[in-house]
């Protein structure tokens, strides 16, 4: 026993500097813990491999990181349509949650190793003048599709596309994060100065992010990376109320307790809920969903529901809702349940939404919203309607696509063809693979799963060796109509430095550049 | 003056030792980890070179925005100075019943190493490691 202990003590400490009395402190361990750590699963083979990753958000990045860590003779090229990496970490994560951007340090570690990993920014892959998938398959041993979701689910209601003042949660997040996509016309569409009451359909965490950004004191967000023009708009904004409407009941709320607690702590904001909507939420089946025996998550669900019941000011009926909304003082955050939007009101700009009252049917874990009979219709007035019912991925030519789930059919990350056969060499990761939900920890795990199958194919020599050089890749990119200027990691670092410097002079972590042309011209400078 | 300043520098920072093992690998892979007082348990575990493949751990950097730094304190739970705040309990809500054991599980980012923790036994769940 003692011998084992002494032996293990030796092996643990032989590399550390010797100190008097045998004290060792944590700082004796190499702080550069991430570098030089060879994976214990390292694939050492004489073959040369090349991998292409389409999309430099967390999903694509984590796949690249796994490959670089576990395969000896390899180069990984990561493509992104934007001149910047990071994906939704830059354009999705709310500006008041900077801790979720910690992954940016990870990116630096990996992307700076340009011998083995190249970033190709501002490159379009796919139809409409981009590099084709078949070209990528020629150049690379394996192609990983991780381009996420650039669209959203629709409500499917008349006038949805023609009325002003109707935006998706993705568009809102793009706007307040300064995305280069520019698909929000601020003055006509968003026009927050005109907005007093907001209705958000859908109650997930993105809906909570948007609520916070609209209701929080802008000065609290100023030191982070929220763009200055956005801050200026928010400073002039005076939102009176936000109604967050879920189709199902309180037990099925999609937000997490952390988010609702954060909202409840915003100064000068009161949370409300309707008595009957809460009562009708607690069907026998929904109660069961909160019972610890029902599922592993039941305890957390119950805690969240308790919080809603205890923290909300309970309103008796619609008249009381109107009365509260019309009060001049204070801001109102109203949790609505069991309501489904059926009609959009307004001529040029939205002015309200008609909802049909629902009730819950079905067994525990499968509660569905069904319209009550006779019909009960409620109108909620608003000058801004936000659809927060999910992002949606787009297909890419040459790859099968499930048009119901809007994901690429796959088996643990290996793409399936239209006969459901796995295609070694073609892989998918992230939201494109499993659907648009879940944040960074789920994405990391998911990318590891995809890597597992890549590793399986490598171990069984199912992937072709490739010796593609950077010049070959550059040629393939530039011979396509849509691609004119490639941004590499060094170029991105120039852009990054400008953003940080500009931010620093304004007391912010970064001042994002909002126009692609500006980013491209900075990256061209010597 | 310089000599006095040099001599006044602390030579040793107090170190606390506890046992760490990966879930289900207590027999084969228990480590004695030395940690500096005042550091968070999350930082100590992340920075310990002997703990391999601890990749899905502490993703939000200690802000209670994820749930990935959860550990099970198999011995010495009561000696931890910081009791769970309501925000830490919100993180527990994100863990399923299997991951969260009342009176055992804590978020490592909320625990500051103290001399009272000497001899504690800490289990890191399997899920915190990259599984290949």
UniProtKB/TrEMBL annotation, chain A:
Compartments where located: Mitochondrion
Binding positions (FAD)? 59, 88, 125, 431, 438-440
Record-level GO cellular component terms: mitochondrion
Enumerate the UniProt keywords alphabetically.
FAD, Flavoprotein, Mitochondrion, NADP, Oxidoreductase
InterPro entries tied to this protein: FAD/NAD-bd_sf (IPR036188), FAD/NAD-binding_dom (IPR023753), Ferredox_Rdtase (IPR055275), Ferredox_Rdtase_adrenod (IPR021163)
Q: Does the keyword Protein biosynthesis apply?
A: no
Instruction: Provide the binding site for NADP(+).
Output: 203-206, 247-248, 259, 438
Tell me the ranges covered by the FAD/NAD(P)-binding domain, including all copies: 50-216
| Similarity comment: family membership | Belongs to the ferredoxin--NADP reductase type 1 family.
| PANTHER family referenced in this protein's UniProt entry, alphabetically | GLUTAMATE SYNTHASE 1 [NADH], CHLOROPLASTIC-LIKE
Q: What is this protein called?
A: NADPH:adrenodoxin oxidoreductase, mitochondrial
UniProtKB/TrEMBL annotation, chain B:
Kindly list the GO CC terms recorded for this protein. mitochondrion
Q: Which residues form the 2Fe-2S ferredoxin-type domain?
A: 14-128
Give any single GO term for biological process. Answer: P450-containing electron transport chain
**Superkingdom, natural source:** Eukaryota
Q: Which cofactor does it need?
A: [2Fe-2S] cluster
UniProt keywords (A-Z) are:
2Fe-2S, Iron, Iron-sulfur, Metal-binding
Q: Which Gene3D superfamilies match?
A: 3.10.20.30
| Keyword Iron attributed | yes
Mind listing the GO molecular function terms for this protein?
2 iron, 2 sulfur cluster binding; electron transfer activity; metal ion binding
PANTHER family, per the entry: FERREDOXIN-2, MITOCHONDRIAL, FERREDOXIN/ADRENODOXIN
Family of this protein: Belongs to the adrenodoxin/putidaredoxin family.
**What name does the UniProt record give this protein?**
2Fe-2S ferredoxin-type domain-containing protein
> What is this organism's lineage?
Eukaryota, Sar, Alveolata, Ciliophora, Intramacronucleata
């Amino acid at each position: 026993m003692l011998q084992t202990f002494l032996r293990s003590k030796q092996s643990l400490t032989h590399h550390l500097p010797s100190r008097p009395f045998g004290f060792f402190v944590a700082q004796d361990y190499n702080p550069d813990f991430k570098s030089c750590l060879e994976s214990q699963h390292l694939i050492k083979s004489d073959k040369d491999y090349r991998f292409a990753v389409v999309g430099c958000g967390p999903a694509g990045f984590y796949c690249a990181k796994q490959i670089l860590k576990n395969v000896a003779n390899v180069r990984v090229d990561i493509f992104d349509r934007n001149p910047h990496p990071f994906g939704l970490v830059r354009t999705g994560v709310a500006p008041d949650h900077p801790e979720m951007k910690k992954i940016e340090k990870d990116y630096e570690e990996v992307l700076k190793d340009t011998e083995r990993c190249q970033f190709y920014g501002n490159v379009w892959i796919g139809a409409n003048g981009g590099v084709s998938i078949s070209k990528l398959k020629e150049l690379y041993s394996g192609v990983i599709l991780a381009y996420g979701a650039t669209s959203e689910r629709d409500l499917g209601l008349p006038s949805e596309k023609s009325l002003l003042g109707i935006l998706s949660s993705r568009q809102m997040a793009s706007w307040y994060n300064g995305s280069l996509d520019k698909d929000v016309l601020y003055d006509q569409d968003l026009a927050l100065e005109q907005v007093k009451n907001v209705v958000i359909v859908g109650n997930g965490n993105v809906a909570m992010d948007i609520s916070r950004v609209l209701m929080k004191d802008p000065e609290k967000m100023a030191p982070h990376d929220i763009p200055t023009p956005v801050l200026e708009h928010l400073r002039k904004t005076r939102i009176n109320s936000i109604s967050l409407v879920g189709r199902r009941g309180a037990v099925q709320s999609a937000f997490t307790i952390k988010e609702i607690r954060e909202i409840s702590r915003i100064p000068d904001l009161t949370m409300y809920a309707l008595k009957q909507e809460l009562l009708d939420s607690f069907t026998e089946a929904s109660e069961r969903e909160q019972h610890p025996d029902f599922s592993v998550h039941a305890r957390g669900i119950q805690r969240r529901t308790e919080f809603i019941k205890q923290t909300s000011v309970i309103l008796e009926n619609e008249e009381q809702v109107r009365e509260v909304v019309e009060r001049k003082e204070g801001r109102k955050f109203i949790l609505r349940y069991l309501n489904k939007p059926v009609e959009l009101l307004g001529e040029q700009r939205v002015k309200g939404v008609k909802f049909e009252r629902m009730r819950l049917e079905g067994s525990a874990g499968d509660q569905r919203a069904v319209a009550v009979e006779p019909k009960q219709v409620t109108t909620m007035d608003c000058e801004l309607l936000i659809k927060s019912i999910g992002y949606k991925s787009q297909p890419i030519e040459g790859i099968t696509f499930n048009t119901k789930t809007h994901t690429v059919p796959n088996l643990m990350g290996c793409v399936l063809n239209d006969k459901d056969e796995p295609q070694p060499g073609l892989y998918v990761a992230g939201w494109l693979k499993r659907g648009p939900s879940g944040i960074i920890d789920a994405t990391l795990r998911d990318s590891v799963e995809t890597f597992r199958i890549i590793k399986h194919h490598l171990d069984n020599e199912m992937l072709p060796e490739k010796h593609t050089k950077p010049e070959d890749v550059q040629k393939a990119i530039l011979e396509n109509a849509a691609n004119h200027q490639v941004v590499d990691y060094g170029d991105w670092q120039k852009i990054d430095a400008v953003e940080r410097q500009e931010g620093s002079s304004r007391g912010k972590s970064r001042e994002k550049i909002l126009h692609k042309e500006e980013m491209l011209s900075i990256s061209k400078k010597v | 003056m310089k000599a006095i300043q040099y001599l006044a520098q602390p030579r040793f920072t107090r170190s606390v030792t506890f046992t760490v093992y990966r879930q289900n690998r207590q027999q084969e892979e228990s480590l004695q980890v030395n940690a500096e007082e005042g550091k968070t348990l999350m930082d100590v575990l992340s920075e310990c070179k002997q703990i391999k493949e601890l990749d899905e751990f502490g993703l939000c950097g200690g802000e209670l925005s994820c749930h990935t730094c959860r550990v099970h304190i198999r011995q010495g739970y009561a000696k931890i100075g910081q009791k769970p705040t309501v925000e830490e309990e919100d993180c527990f809500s994100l863990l399923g019943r299997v991951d969260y054991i009342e009176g055992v599980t804590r978020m490592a980012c909320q625990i500051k190493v103290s001399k009272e923790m000497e001899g504690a036994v800490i289990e890191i769940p399997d899920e915190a490691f990259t599984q290949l």
